[in-house]
Amino acid sequence: IDECATGDHTCDKNAKCNNTIGSYHCTCNPGFSGDGRECTDIDECVTGDHTCDKNAKCNNTIGSYHCTCNPGFSGDGRECTDIDECVTGDHTCDKNAKCNNTIGSYHCTCNPGFSGNGRECTDIDECVTGDHTCDKNARCNNTIGSYHCTCNPGFSGNGRECTDIDECVTGDHTCDKNARCGNTIGSYHCTCNPGFSGNGREC
C-alpha cells in the first residue's frame, strides 16, 4: 500500500511523505525541522541561514524568509547597493547647503556664509558678527551668503583696502578760489586766504 498516495500516513503538513516497501517515512520540507511527523518552522533570520545582504533586513516567513534592503539602499535584498541621495535628489538639505553622500544615508552642511544644521540654513550677517575683511574706512554691506565692502566717501579702493583721497590734489573740492584747501583723512577743509573772510567755500 502506498500510504503517501492514499493519505494513510502521519506526516506533518509541512513534510514530504516517501513511500517504502511495506511502510513510509516523513521528511520535513526545506525551511522546517523535526522528525517529519512534527515539523516546525526554522527562523533563518535567527539561525543566520539566509543569503540577505549585510545592508538588508531578514524577515522570516513560514518555511522560508525574504530580504528587504535597508533605507538608503536599493536592490532585491540579497544584493543591496547604496543610494546616492545627493544625486537622486532624495534628501532634505537646505537649498543653501551641500549634500554629502554616506553609506546608507547622507548629511548636509550649510554653505559658507550660512549657519544651521544643514537642513535649515540661515544667512550670516558678517557685517553684524564682524566676520568680514572690510577696511576700517569702508562700509560693510550684507548679501545673501556673503557681503561686499564699499570705501567711505573720501576714500578709494576695493573696499577691503581703502586709501584717503587727497581732494586738494585731485581738485575734487568746493573751496573758494581765494581759499586754501587742506586735506584731512577722508575729507578736507577750506580756509580763506589772508585778506579774505568767509567759511572757505565762500570768501
From TrEMBL:
PROSITE patterns: ASX_HYDROXYL (PS00010), EGF_2 (PS01186), EGF_3 (PS50026), EGF_CA (PS01187). Gene3D superfamilies: Laminin. InterPro entries: EGF, EGF-like_Ca-bd_dom, EGF-type_Asp/Asn_hydroxyl_site, EGF_Ca-bd_CS, Growth_fac_rcpt_cys_sf, LDrepeatLR_classA_rpt, NELL2-like_EGF, Nephronectin_domain. It comes from the Eukaryota. CDD domains: EGF_CA. Residues 1-40, 41-81, 82-122, 123-163, 164-202 form the EGF-like domain. The keyword Disulfide bond applies. Signal peptide: none annotated. One of its GO terms (molecular function) is calcium ion binding. Pfam families: EGF_3. Keywords: Disulfide bond, EGF-like domain, Repeat, Signal. Belongs to the EGF domain peptide family. This is EGF-like domain-containing protein.
